[in-house]
Design goal:
Layout: E1 12-16, H1 25-28, H2 32-38, H3 48-61, E2 64-67, H4 77-86, E3 93-96, H5 107-117, E4 122-127, E5 141-143, H6 152-162
Parallel strand pairs: 1-2, 1-4, 2-3, 4-5
């Protein structure tokens, strides 16, 4: 194995939430209501199990990872990358979605804005929350369970989308 990273150009984008995807409420040892009430006092956690699954996605598809999580507004991209690497992540966080509107209620509009501004055609969204106020079925949105996070079944869903 080469000690140099291979730069692979890809047209695939993975819009990534953290809480409920890269961890679960169980990792915080609190329920969803307590999480929402205390979010300003928490530091985000990353589960090694979910990091391992994210590494599999990166190794197989080499997507550009765009953070859509609330945490993009509390930490710099460099700080987030460092936290991911400390947890064992082997890839790179390539960017963040714009911040406007409601953090969860307008997430689809934030992602859609990024897609349009960057001419994105192949994407997947990993998020545990509804992406807009109407709970619209968004294309290529894979919804995780807040109490469990990213799982093998979600990797199979990614395969169905990106192996067409």
């Amino acid at each position: 194995m080469s000690k140099y990273k291979i730069n692979i150009t890809t047209n695939k984008y993975l819009f990534l939430d953290i809480d409920g995807v890269m961890n679960s409420f169980d990792d915080y040892n609190i329920n969803g209501k307590e999480f929402k009430e205390n979010i300003h006092n928490l530091t985000f956690l990353l589960s090694k199990r979910q990091i391992s699954l994210l590494n599999k996605i990166v190794e197989k598809y080499h997507p550009k990872i765009i953070l859509s999580s609330y945490w993009r507004n509390r930490y710099s991209l460099k700080e987030i990358q460092n936290k991911f690497e400390k947890a064992g992540f082997k890839g790179k966080i390539n960017g963040i979605t714009p911040s406007f509107g409601g953090e969860h209620e307008d997430r689809w509009q934030q992602i859609e804005h990024y897609i349009q501004d960057n001419d994105v055609s192949e994407y997947i969204i990993l998020d545990d929350s509804p992406l807009d106020r109407k709970n619209t079925k968004i294309p290529n949105w894979i919804r995780t369970d807040s109490y469990h996070g990213l799982d093998l079944k979600h990797l199979k869903e990614i395969d169905k989308i990106w192996e067409k």
